[in-house]
Design goal:
By secondary structure, this protein is of the alpha+beta class. The chain is 19% helix and 16% strand.
Length: 113
């Protein structure tokens, strides 16, 4: 079925489809109302475009948003860099800080990235 079964994967449970762009507040409002019905397990993720760095306020805001949206189990994802030579990971501004390699892979924030 075009647009349904022709994708590389499927969306499980009540999650917004992978690749769907939504602000964390909108995503939590949509997914949060279903958590109370999933007694066998449930999780919703807030997807950040960049690591929060030294900004605990944004993490606190997201956790409070999850609680207000009735999210029973939540996670916060963000992309990381990974060196293709030594597998060191973190946030790089250029070459790998461990080995100096310029071959860096940017890992996405979403599940399966």
């Amino acid at each position: 079925i075009p647009g349904i079964t022709g994708k590389g994967g499927y969306t499980d449970s009540f999650h917004l489809p992978a690749g769907h762009t939504a602000a964390p507040a909108d995503k939590m409002a949509i997914e949060g109302r279903f958590h109370r019905y999933c007694h066998g397990g449930h999780i919703s993720y807030a997807e950040l475009e960049a690591p929060p760095g030294h900004n605990p306020e944004v993490l606190d805001e997201i956790v409070r948003l999850m609680a207000a949206s009735d999210i029973g189990y939540g996670g916060i994802n963000f992309p990381l860099d990974e060196c293709c030579s030594c597998a060191f990971s973190g946030v790089f501004s250029g070459s790998c800080p461990r080995c100096g390699c310029d071959s860096i892979r940017r890992r996405g924030a979403g599940p399966g990235s």
